[in-house]
Amino acid sequence: MNEREQGERAGVKAALDRELGRLLFSGQEKVLGQTHPRGLQSRLHAIWNKELEIPLVPAAAIIAVLAGTLVLGRMRSDPIVDRTDSAVNRVLVVEGKNVYWQDDYERAVASIEAEDSR
After folding, report:
1. Which of 11, 49, 108, 115 lies at a C-alpha separation of 20 to 30 Å from 62?
2. What is the pTM assigned to this prediction?
3. Distance CA 6, CA 10 (A)
4. Mean pLDDT per 10-residue segment, the chain (118 residues)
């Protein structure tokens, strides 16, 4: 550093000292308690307040792999059923103000009749 830079720094420091001379920092104990916890509760609080930095690309890759694994596992475990044929052959029945599939309606009526005949 040359003398000119040192003079500028001294001037800036003097100006800061004049402006901030009336301000006093009174939270030293609180800051020390948070940065250097003593008791168990303070340590747990410090752990809870710890800031986590999670890298975006690896986290997104892990989520994508897990989602892909779940989807592929689900696709392999579920048998492929051609539901178009069974849906085409089903008939809707209107009973009162309700609409039912005919085979479901017939099963329900049969089970109710079986209970009544006992």
Report:
1. 49
2. 0.32
3. 6
4. 87 91 85 82 80 90 96 78 64 91 92 87
